[in-house]
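Good day; I would like, with your permission, to put a structural problem before you. A protein sequence and the structure tokens that stand for its backbone fold form the material at issue. I would ask you to consider whether the tokens describe a fold that such a sequence might reasonably adopt. I set the record out below, with my sincere thanks for your time.
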Amino acid sequence: MAGRTGQGRARRAAVAAVIAAGTVLATPGTVLAAGAGLPPKQPRIADLATENSACVSGEKRPYVGSVPRLTARLYGPGGGQPGEASKVRGEFEAWWQGEGGVEERVTTTTSTLLDTAPFSWQLPDTIPAETVVSWRVRAVNDAGVSAWSSEGPGAPCEFVYDRTLPDVPVVTSSDYPDDNTWTPGAGVRGTFRFTAQAGDIVGFAYSFNGELPRMADVRPDGSAEISFVPEKSGRQVLSVQAQDRAGNRGPRTDYSFLTGEGPAPVARWKLADATGSRSAAAENGTAARAGAGVAFGAPAPSGTPLTATASLDGSGHGFLTPGAPVVVDTAKDFAVGGWVRPARVDGTRTVLSQDAGTGRAFTLGLTQSGPGPAWSFSVGGARVTGGLPEAGDWAYVLGQYDAGTGTARLYVNGRAAGEETAAVPVAGEGDFQIGRARGAQGYRDRWQGEIGDVRAYDRIVVPEELTALATRAARRVGHWALDTAPDGLAPETGGGAPVKLGAGASIFRLDHPCDVFDPDCVQDWPLEGDGHLRLDGVSGHAATDAPVVDTTGSYTVSARVRLTDDAPAGPMTAISQGGEHGDAFKVRFDPENSSWDLVLAHADEPGAPETVLRRIEQPDGDIGVGYRVTVVHDASRNQVSFYLDGVKYAEGGTADFDAAWKSTGGLQLGRGRTADGWGEHLKGVVDSVYAYEGVLSEDEIRRLP
């Protein structure tokens, strides 16, 4: 017994020593801070905030537009070391000079929390406005209190509650006055000035035509200036509010002004001059002298107002120049562009440029980028590249320098290409050039191919203009109503090539309808017009003798289709055009997926890869008006799109496609190419087939019958 008693005394002595050393034994799962029984640490200034503003005093104190919430991080005896936690309370105190110079104070103490939690106090609404308010905080536990955050190396936090709204701002502009007069115009940059009476204005919130507001910082004199480029003609409304340092925004000023159409180009050459001419007449600006390597009367891009273009042979004589600059100030907004068709896409080739000493201020053309050619626009030492030039293909290219953003932009066929790039322009006081660029050893980088409708602007070309400049109207090359087929030939409505009906194909007409109220009246009804093409699903088809659309170019093909079966046994092709082994495009119904599919083979070869766009739909089973299926190939973008009843999916309705090949076969209705030859015969009806050279707009596609 004596021995056991001695061991117990030893254990109690060891425990006492541990406790004296400041270590607390706890049950498993409890984490306590070292230094239990000690007061908390003094709060640090860096861990305090007035709402979202740091704790500061003096001239840098924040101004707030509402009574703020004060926040602090507090520390127990362990000082917030990892793996430790202490329970503390926060004691906040705020004070200010009240009326008659009497100091007023408010205080609060928070509930007890672990010191890993944020501590906060929403000040009461009795806090006075327009008065410097100071505050501090300290931590409290059962062992004592910390020093105030303002003591020793600390300092009080300060703020001012400012609820006085700024005055209504004054807006002025000499470029776009608010006087109901029309001023030019879309694409022309204008400057607007904002002023307000209050001395604590830090910015102006402004928006045009109800868009989301942006901020304009004030200058030393308290005013602000912005520039704006109208993107359309008509009435514009600029809304402005002054904002003070507390974030308060005052009453709104609505400034209204009228903008007209964008001014005409400063220079324009259609390049549609008579064959043999040695100069190009100018629609605007000065006539351009043509070198001996320029031949007028070259073809123009279809679907545009142009009737002819100029062909440049790529030699030292293949150029045009007005002998003067066109872009007078390259540090301001400008744009240059035109229709081009390169005969070659190797090397660097210039469409338009302007001399700058022995160099050039800007160059628009094509260059080699990575593995192949790309369209290019350079300003000073900056270059934007994008798009894919192809020999023999027309493109509308335009380069633009935006002085407001200090960036160069490139547009191909009306769409942005490449990345907007920061540019530092150089003075370009030399001559404007078509088809060549200045270098240290003379002119070089000569264009070989066609150029038409060259334009230069001293303003921004706005999006609607870009679209209009680059638009090629689709040209209808076929419409088959499929109402009649004398001698087995369904005529094209414009007198073009008919479609020839094969075995298993017939034209249905409703010449003697029965009474729709007669319960025994069971008959077909034309999808559109007076009749439609019926196909038996075995051998039935109709076709033209030759291709209707060039499948390497841009085209739109559309037809209305209704299936007879509601459970087809296999795929059925409604419309196609291809070659000996495959289809350049076909639209078929796939019962396995219950979908209408647009299928494009990548080559006229057995087993060639395919691009497929799919729309999930139920077969109609010979009921209703069927579906209008529409195929669009945009060669300028190397894209295909698939529409069903005038609508395409936002995702999956368009796909990149750069494997177009030239179809040699006729347009087929009701069949497509398979590994075993003709197959996938359609059991159903086809009606109202349209074919276009070019891309119909989405609105035009929706308006198809």
Q: What stands out?
A: The CA atoms of residues 67 and 126 lie 9 Å apart. Confidence is low (pLDDT under 50) at residues 1-34. The first strand starts at residue 48 and ends at 50. The radius of gyration is 39 Å.
